[in-house]
Structures are given as C-alpha cells and as structure tokens.
Design goal:
Blueprint (H helix, E strand, L loop, with lengths): L24 H16 L4 E2 L5 E3 H8 L4 H5 L2 E5 L3 E5 L4 H10 L2 H4 L3 E10 L11 E10 L4 H17 L6 E6 L3 H17 L6 H9 L10 H8 L10 H16 L5 E2 L11 E8 L8 E7 L3 H4 L7 E7 H11 L8 E5 L4 H14 L4 E3 L6 H10 L4 E5 L1 H6 L1 E6 L4 E6 L2 H12 L1
Parallel strand pairs: 1-5, 7-8, 12-13, 12-14
Antiparallel strand pairs: 2-4, 3-4, 5-6, 6-11, 7-9, 9-10, 10-11, 14-15, 15-16
The structure holds one RNA strand.
Length: about 425
RNA sequence: GUGGGCGUAGCUCAGCUGGUAGAGCAGCGGAUUGUGGAUCCGCGGGUCGCGGGUUCAAACCCCGUCGCUCACCCCA
C-alpha cells in the first residue's frame, strides 16, 4: 500500500467510474460539451495556449502583490536558464498570444475560448485543487458595455444549459484607473477611521491593497465594510455611464443579477466591470465562475492598447454541482452478447450498426457465459441486448431485447435493419 | 503557511477494559448447457498508512512520521 505511487496532492484522476461522481468522465463531458455548445453559439472560437509560460508573464500580468503570484505558482527553472511556471490562470497566456500574433493591428475583435488545466499550489479542499480545469472566454477589441453584458449572460446561460438552479450572478464595477485611485483614497480614510476594529490583515491592506478589505471574511471587518463608502460615489462620469449601461442590458436580457459592492477580485488586472457566479451548494468555495474587464492589461504587457473582457469557470465546481443534482449516464444503446463461435459475426454486425447510425454498440469480448454477459449488459446500462448464437446466425434473425421492460422484438441481423429498429424503439 | 477531523479488504465501515481481523457493497463462479436487474450458495482478496517504543502479547496504549480531508487566507 505504501509502495504504490500516488497522484500528487490536489491533482485528480477523472475516470469512467469513480466513487466521487464529479470526477467521472460522463459528468465532465456533459460540462465541457454544454459549455462549448453555448460559447460557440456566441461566435467564440477555441484556442489552445501552452500550459507553461515564462514566469515574467504571470508576474507582470497578474500582479506581483497578488496571492497567486506571491505564493501559489508552480515555478521551476528550465535547464537552469529561464524561469518558467505552470499557468495559474488562462487570461495571461491568451493576452500574450493576442499580442504576439499582432491581432491588435490586423483584426482587433477576437472572441476566443479555451479549456484546460491551471495550477495553483494552495492547500486543497472541497472544490479547490492544485490542478484544476477552467473553461474560459476572452473578448478583445470591444469596449462597449454590450460586450460586458453579453459575456456575463453567456456565462449564465452555460449554467442554465447545465440545469443548475442555485446560481446567482453578482456584478460590480472597479471603475477606470482614476476612479479607482480616488476610491482607494476614500477607502483608506474610512479604514483609518475604523482601524482599531480591523483585523491585522486589513490593517496592512490600508497601505497595500485597500480594495481587498471589502471582501475580508473576518466578521468584525465585514461589519465595518458593510458601511464603507460605495465606489459608486467615486466613479468618473464615463465609468458610471458604462456600468449603468451594463446593468441595464443585463436587466433587458432578463438576468436577475445582484450588485455586490464587495466584489473586488484578487487579480490586479481588472478594471470597470467585475462579475462572479456564486452558489451556496459548494461549501467554502462559492464561486463557480468569475471574470471582468481588463482594458489595461494588453498595454501593460507591451501590446497596443486594446480593450478586453473575459471570464473563467471552474470545471470541477460545475461538475460538483451537476453530479449533486442529476444522474449522468451514457451506457451503450446496444449490447451484443455472442455465444461461443459467434464472436466474429458479432464484431462485424456491431461495426455495421455503428456505421449505419449514431449508436453506441458494445460487444462482450470476455468470452464468458451468457449469464455473465447479460449481467454486464445490465451493469453498463445498455438499453438493448442482442444474443447471437448458432440459431440466430443460421436464421439471420435475432431478438432485440429492451432491457428496461424485458420485451423482445424480432430483427434481421443487418446493420441497417438493427439501426432502423433502434431508431423506432428509442423514439 | 495555520487549525480541526481521519487513516483497518477495491468502496463504506465495525473491531468492547490490549489476546496477532470482521460485515455490507462491489468482483468472480454456481443454483438455471442460450437471455440482465431479485434471492440463495460458494470463492478470492488485508505488511490493520509507515517507523519506533511499552508489553508475555499492540489494529487498539505512547512517540514520531507520511498521507487524506475540511476549514482559514485567496480564488475557479
């Protein structure tokens, strides 16, 4: 037991059958397929970005002072020369690619989506892992509030398409740089006035990052934060107008969002609109997805200034919610059980059915007795079973058995005939 | 990095005040030479996380260590 190798802490296997349903591939397929369908319906196209990037990209992009960069990155040296790191999020790499391929000049409006693993060296807990998957989308070259609204609605639609009920969209604005600077000062003043009730972390944040005080979970801080001045008061006219339009569009689209003044987010690159999808069903990790506008990032990383907005959703968290609320199964439509001597015929017939229609067909290749084969048909959740023996092969006809109700119907043993029968019986 | 809980069969766990291991489920086979789910019978599976200590004797007590898990910080 102690000699076998183990997956490293916080990194999971996703398998066809698992004790924890959210780590089964059927659930993941549902999450990923659904998200892809919804996102591509908005005109986004997939990009595949490397998992490893130069450390400097994340340090500069996400921000030196953030938790991610200061203590959570998997950083290593590549043959002793340059410092590389496993991506902790997807936006920085996409932005790097956007700049590197010169899209700002040639075709600035880009709608990209991605899926893949991200890495953060935190202590794992429910809904939080060191290797975790994100589905994300980035929209470049659009500064109009319609872009913000569309992205938020899209994220919401993914949850709807997954049948998730307990999900709340929250939105906020951080304003443009001037608004934020102004608000930071206002907040500092307010925090100093209440400094004796703040936790130690927040005392430090007065200087380093006052915004973060707003989402501190310390009860005393929370109470003080609740009465803190709202950023709305510090917003420039443009930022104010931008946010007003975003929320108007959201309402027009029928989205029941909550404006959350404490929604600040921990990455440095956000500006203007920020948003999150939260749930009460995940324990301490209540965010299933989040994002925001990052108009300054492309310039920050050396590109021509281009507005941008994006979001990321956690696949594990979505899978957790899906697995908790619904049964996801994908057994074969047809299970073929060959008696001794019928194996070759079974293989050929199965192939003919697969080419003749959109059906999953499994042949029992264990060579065991019929009883065992039927048990397996049941276990894998097959809808129909077909036994092949000397009789059937001689008559070129067999009994298609509906395993849900144990009724049988006679079919000719050709791919087309079986496909036609399945089409009729499944409908 | 900090704190709580837990490590016994593939899974979920039982194991009384220490006497060198059990159940259910799952798996495989049979009862029924060719038709699943129910029932019955049988079979296989364990260095009791690891190391050390106390003891005639340790899954149980003590120390250490590793791992898992939940929570804090923060996020997806």
């Amino acid at each position: 037991m102690s000699e076998i190798l183990h997956a490293v802490k916080g990194m999971n296997d996703v398998l066809p059958e698992t004790a924890e349903a959210f780590l089964s591939t059927a659930v993941w397929d549902k999450v990923i397929d659904t998200a892809r369908r919804v996102i591509e319906g908005y005109g986004y196209r997939q990009v595949l970005i490397p998992i490893v990037e130069e450390t400097a990209l994340f340090a500069r992009g996400i921000g030196e002072g953030t938790d991610i960069v200061s203590k959570e990155m998997y950083t290593f040296s590549d043959r002793g020369e340059r410092s590389l790191t496993l991506r902790p999020e997807g936006t920085a790499g996409c932005v790097r690619a956007f700049i590197e391929h010169g899209f700002a000049k040639t075709d600035p409006v880009q709608k990209w989506w991605y899926i893949g693993p991200m890495f953060r060296a935190e202590r794992p807990q429910k809904g939080r892992y060191r290797q975790f998957y994100q589905i994300g989308a980035e929209l470049y070259g659009a500064s109009d509030p319609a872009a913000d609204a569309e992205v938020i609605v899209m994220m919401w639609r993914i949850c709807q398409a997954l049948g998730l009920k307990d999900v709340t969209p929250r939105v906020n604005t951080l304003g443009d740089k001037e608004s934020r600077d102004r608000y930071r000062d206002v907040l500092r003043g307010y925090m100093r006035a209440n400094v004796d009730t703040l936790c130690d972390a927040c005392k430090a944040r007065i200087e380093t990052n006052p915004l973060r005080f707003l989402d501190c979970k310390n009860p005393a801080c929370k109470e003080v934060a609740r009465k803190a001045p709202d950023i709305m008061e510090s917003l420039s006219a443009q930022s104010r107008a931008h946010f007003d339009k975003v929320t108007t569009y959201l309402r027009d689209c029928g989205l029941a969002y909550v404006r959350d003044a404490a929604l600040v987010r921990g990455l440095d690159y956000y500006s203007e609109t920020t948003f999150e999808l939260t749930t009460s069903a995940l324990g301490a990790q209540d965010a299933v997805g989040g994002g925001g506008r990052y108009d300054g990032l492309i310039e920050e990383l050396g590109g021509t200034p281009t507005p941008a907005i994006g979001f990321a959703m956690g696949v594990e968290r979505l899978a957790l919610l899906v697995a908790a609320t619904q049964q996801v199964a994908s057994g074969p439509h047809l299970f073929i059980a060959p008696m001794a001597g019928a194996e070759s015929f079974a293989l050929q017939l199965a192939d003919a059915v697969r080419t003749g229609g959109p059906y999953r067909v499994e042949v029992d290749v264990t060579g065991r007795k019929l009883k065992g084969q039927m048990r397996r048909a049941d276990k894998v959740g097959a809808r129909f079973a077909l036994v092949l023996g000397e009789d059937e092969i001689a008559r070129r006809h067999g009994n298609l058995k509906d395993l849900r109700v144990s009724s049988t119907s006679d079919v000719a043993l050709t791919g087309d005939a079986i496909c036609a029968a399945l089409a009729k019986l499944i409908a």
